[in-house]
Amino acid sequence: MNDQLTKPETKAESTPAESRARVPVYRPLTDIVETDDGVSLMLEMPGVGADDLDISLERRVLTIRGTVRIFRPENVELAHLEYGEGDYERAFTLSEDLDPERIEAELRNGVLTLSLPRAEQKLPKKIAVKTA
């Protein structure tokens, strides 16, 4: 991958950090696809709803946070847990050739897809000369 994105924060994939709510915070697994038109990020965030996502961009740092609402049916005792329940957080530094004004996000089946289009190239302006 070239300089479209730099390496994300260095948090261990399997070692969650503790958040203020005393819930583990995980770094979601992410696929990155680069095309001529831009970059797409696909983050695995099971259990996160659209209302529980916070995506912000400040000084070219794109930060994604997702809060998981833990659902447990009443009168049911958990016998086995396949994955740790917790929130998600990940950050990426965007390169200058991506357009922050046109970023789009879509959440479907636990996968957050962010489309980061490239900025349109600024072409030199031709100045017409008028004659009298």
How does this structure look, described?
This protein is mostly beta strands and 132 residues long. It is elongated and about 90 Å long. About 11% of the residues have low confidence. It has a 5-stranded mixed beta sheet, with no helix packed on it. Strand 5 and strand 6 form a beta hairpin. The protein has one domain: Immunoglobulin-like, CATH 2.60.40.790. The chain has no helices and 9 strands.
Helical segment count: 0
Largest sheet descriptor: 5 strands, mixed
Termini separation comes to 55 Å
The radius of gyration over CA amounts to 20 Å
Encode the helix/strand succession as letters: EEEEEEEEE
- For the record, the CATH architecture stands as Sandwich
Mean pLDDT across residues:
82
Shape: elongated
> Largest beta sheet: what is the strand line-up?
1-2-7-6-5
| Number of domain modules | 1
Q: Helix amount, in percent?
A: under 10%
Instruction: Classify the fold: give the CATH topology.
Output: Immunoglobulin-like
CATH class: Mainly Beta
Query: What structural category characterises the helix and strand content?
Result: mainly beta
Query: Strand fraction band?
Result: 35-45%
Question: Low-confidence parts, pLDDT < 50 over ≥5 residues?
Answer: 6-20
